[in-house]
Amino acid sequence: MASIGIGVLCAVREVGPLLQRSAMWASLAVALCAMLGGVGPARAQSSVRDIGDLGNEAVPLTESMARFMNTHVCITAGQLASFEVLAYSMLERLGEDFGTAAGAEFVREGKTYVSTVSGVSEASRARAKIRVENMMRALERNLREIRRMPPCVEPFTNRFTFGLQLIKTQQNLNSTERLASTGTITNQFSDSKDPLGVGVIVAYSLRPWSNNWVVSPFVSVDYLNMSVNRTFPSGSFLGTTSNFAATAGVKAGPMLSNGVWLYGIAGVSALNETLRVNFLPIASSQTTTVPGATVGVGGAIQPSALQGLGHPVSLFVEYQHTWWQDAQFNTPVASPAFNYNFRREDDTIKFGFMVGLAGTETAPPPKPAYPVKAPALK
């Protein structure tokens, strides 16, 4: 008897810490399940109060999949992934419901659960099992049909686009006058103007990482014909006239679930401008091209009302800031004793539209002639 007592005591000493650790992990698991909406024993106990409800939780998802197939001619990769995740999760829950209806043990995530339904007739259990099986078949069938839908060409991607844009630019010009002989600053002026211009843009959009990030190399050419001058009381003036500007760069950013594309902009630019020093009665001018750097942000959307024109149409709005290299106009005839330095920075708002040209998209197939239905529960 003493040896038995010593053996029991040793076993308790060895098993005690294990039981404590098991209890701790079990309590953590229960708390986590509660925070996540209830899976495991808590869900099993709360979802089987009425065995007649087993399987009904899958009805909204099954009907949603049927409605989608009736109203869409193609499916995006994101939509398909969402349906697959929801369907797999629901099939797991229906598996639990089947085990509950059968009054048997069922396993989920490596844990064994036992049906909490008691005092239910075999006929009720049989009806519940048939209902759950029907819902599982309906979900699996709709998932197969959705997977057969042709993929949609997602907005803004895999195509060349051509667009037009209106340009509202805040041009900020700093002019510096120096003595040609010594370099001494004799005058400094700051002027600004915000005229309206137009431009064209060509781009190609793609998804290099096969996710929701869209990358679009582009080239834009803007016709400006805008002058920023410092005018003096005598009518004389000095300043610059922007003839045209070009930018080559890239737009990149995420495509949101509502079809809106948000992106950042980075590029290199070139500005063709005419420098003018007009000191009456003599006027001097010089045309030059200076490089610049452009950064910005923008957003685009493809309104459904504009998609029946044969080519996809998107609308966009952008903000860009450009730093231009200084332009020099030394010893002009109108002022031969001075050198002039013109420094420009531009803040630009662009509104416009893009039309999809050649790409990988194909015409979507017609909608099914008959509706896809979610099967009635039996």
Please, could you describe this protein's structure?
This protein has 378 residues and is of the alpha+beta class. The chain contains five helices and twelve strands. Strands 3-5-6-7-8-9-10-12 form an eight-stranded antiparallel beta barrel. A hairpin with a 5-residue loop joins strand 6 (213-231) and strand 7 (237-254). The relative contact order is 0.13. Residues 1-49 and 360-366 have low confidence and may be disordered.
Short description:
By secondary structure, the chain is of the alpha+beta class. It has helices spanning 2-35, 41-47, 59-71, 77-102, 122-148; strands at 105-108, 111-114, 159-179, 185-193, 196-205, 213-231, 237-254, 261-279, 282-301, 313-324, 327-330, 338-359.
**Extended strand count:** 12
How are strands sequenced across the largest beta sheet? Answer: 3-5-6-7-8-9-10-12
What structural category characterises the helix and strand content?
alpha+beta
Give the strand content: 35-45%
Largest sheet: 8 strands, antiparallel, barrel
Outline type:
rod-shaped
Elements, N to C (H/E): HHHHEEHEEEEEEEEEE
